[in-house]
Amino acid sequence: FISQSYIFPFKKPFAKAVLVELEKGYLEAHRGLW
Question: Where exactly are the structural domains of the chain?
Fold first, then answer.
């Protein structure tokens, strides 16, 4: 179950860009561990 209040912000371009940056940082951090 995911509430609308949680889904709604991620439909915004800005929030989407933030998620992309977080994903990049996550991948970079894990790539550095290998």
Answer: 1-34
